[in-house]
Amino acid sequence: MTKKILITGGAGFIGSHVVRLFVNKYPDYHIYNLDVLTYAGNLENLKDIEQKPNYTFIKADINDEQKINDLFQSYRFDAVIHLAAESHVDRSIEDPLIFVKTNIIGTLNLLNAFRYLWADDFKDKRFYHISTDEVYGTLGLKGLFTESTPYAPNSPYSASKASSDHFVRAYGETYKLPFVITNCSNNYGPNQFPEKLIPLFINNIINNSPLPVYGDGNYTRDWLYVLDHAAAIDLVFHQGNNKETYNIGGFNEWKNIDLVKLLCKQMDIKLNRAEGTSESLITYVKDRPGHDLRYAIDATKINKELNWSPSVTFEEGLSQTIDWYLNNKEWLLHVTTGAYQDYYKKQYQK
Ligand code: NAD
Fold first, then answer.
1. Which residues are in the NAD(P)-binding domain (predicted)?
2. Is 323 an active-site residue?
3. If you write DSSP's letter for every residue of 110-140 in order, what string do you get?
4. pLDDT for position 348
5. Could you report the per-residue pLDDT of 29-77, keeping only the tens digit for each?
């Protein structure tokens, strides 16, 4: 029998890559992509698969409890891969409440609908919650986040994701709802909305606009190519152990300023500009409040247990990402008009 898989947030950045992978790789599954299409959701991301017979798009809000229950009862999803979320830290500092609604209450609505549908009889069922390494808070100059690092979220975004992780785990204990959780580091790649660092800077370099670097630029993040994240999600969904958490990371730490300089170098070459042209756009701006100094993931568990590791180097992934944005200028133009301009002015020109 066809396995019915609900993927939430499938019109967003990571979700669109996961939807495409599952639709193409598993013709026997039916993939339902549920997304309300916020500013970050874009069906253009899925143009190439929208006609496939094993794909259905459902426009719905995970905050709409009744609608979510009705959808679960009519489609009878066997599994959920939950990515829908408000995902941008800066926006969570401006408006924390929407993060509480979507990331916490929205997740609860899905958990409840799944539980009611299967009446606590979960044979061959799975709820997969996609989360972030930001739930662990910040590291000093040394050390790595492991699956047993205590949660210590510092932003409204990470607090909302931490809370949803706890609810998923609690439903596993209280109602025996079968779950897996993954906590992943910063993703980059095609289709990422240009509010996040790499596409924001690619867009600004194309337009000769300033590159706003927070604080002294010494913040450190681990970066993972989005297709490697999607491959990890596929593995964990099929082979991850029930009630387990897996950390996913790129073994690829970069100080923001070094990353920006590498990006500038690659952009100068690709745009045939003199060396140093893009770097001259770097402007240091007032720091983000509560900015975490360093995130770094120990991905040994998923590497050893599920034999997963990243398939591309950062230099390769970054180069492919830049090529994608340069070849999809219309996509970029579409998402950076209108409301994006207001957001940008508020965020960087205050
Ligand atoms: P994104 O912002 O690009 O996409 C989020 C998607 O969710 C959008 O399509 C949006 O329309 C949809 N959505 C938002 N609110 C909704 C609602 N109320 N109902 C239905 N759909 C809704 O996010 P992303 O970067 O692709 O992240 C996806 C998931 O992965 C999130 O849960 C995020 O916390 C997690 N994550 C992201 C990263 C990263 O680096 N981007 C890293 C680790 C984990």
1. 6-320
2. no
3. HHHHHHHHHTT--TT-EEEEEEEGGGG--B-
4. 79
5. 999 999 999 999 999 999 999 999 999 999 999 999 999 999 999 999 9
Closest approach atom of ligand 1 to CA 192: 3
ipTM over 0.95: yes
Structural domains present in the chain: 3-188+224-248 (3.40.50.720)
* Run of H or E including 319: helix 314-327
Q: How far apart are CA 44 and CA 37, in angstroms?
A: 11
Residue nearest to atom 41 of ligand 1 (CA): 187
- Ligand 1 atom nearest the C-alpha of 82 is 32
CA distance 231 to 225: 10
Catalytic site residue from 32, 128, 136, 157: 157
Contacts of 166 (CB under 8 A, 6+ apart): 151
Residue 111 CA from chain centroid, whole number? 20
Cα separation values, 337 from 94, 117, 332, Å: 21, 41, 9
